[in-house]
Amino acid sequence: MNEDPVEGTPIGRRVVLGMLGLGAAGVAVGASLQQKVNRALAPVGGIQDVLPAAGGFRYYSVTGGVKRHSAATHRVTVGGLVDKPRAFTMADLARLPQTMLDKDFQCVTGWRVPNVRWTGVALPDLLDAVGVSPRAKAVRFKSFDGVYTESLTLDQARRRDVMVATQMNGKPVTHDHGGPTRLYVAPMYGYKSLKWLGGIELTDKVEQGYWEDLGYDVDAWVGRSNGRDDAPT
């Protein structure tokens, strides 16, 4: 993860954060270096897509494009180690208890959007609706982009500030923001808040997600380090 970036090779967070800091400070990046950065960041787009904006979201995708899902036909499947596997429509989700949170969205690359209003189904309520097997120890999330995955321990997933979000700031979650449904994990960095949520699976252990396979921390608490020298602070 600390090697010089070459085509097709992911680069470590310290390198990314260092380059983002240069960009934010207004330091010009040479053409050859920019080409290297763009290739290294191929899973999320070029450097122009990840430099912090003034108080706004940046849009990430780990694929070249994500097919849009209509709210009328979208489903979130919940299965694995549960009593009652089920596919939830948007109407089904709306009939479950609704939770509203006013929380920041913090990206591991440094930018933050304060006081976003998130509305949806708290994950504990969704898990209660299907019944969790005593054998379940973790929850795995799958994006309908076909690539992006994430996991939480069952204890983490049962926090009331973890939700299947269906609205942001009083409006349906847009496609660019990961709609119709996305995961929102308030106490962790944004890469844990999986976009384009299509599947939830209860498992007997935590399975590393897309970003963890590239060297990011499995437990991504905002502001905390787990001892790694490249952990965000």
Automatic annotation (TrEMBL):
The record's InterPro entries line, in alphabetical order, gives: OxRdtase_Mopterin-bd_dom, OxRdtase_Mopterin-bd_sf, TAT_signal
Q: Which one Pfam family would you cite for this protein?
A: Oxidored_molyb
Keyword set includes Membrane = yes
What the entry lists under Gene3D superfamilies is as follows: Oxidoreductase, molybdopterin-binding domain
**Which N-terminal residues, if any, form the signal peptide?**
none
List, for all copies, the residue spans of the domain called Oxidoreductase molybdopterin-binding.
65-211
What keywords tag this UniProt record?
Membrane, Transmembrane, Transmembrane helix
Q: Where are the transmembrane segments?
A: 15-33
* Protein name (database record): Molybdopterin-dependent oxidoreductase
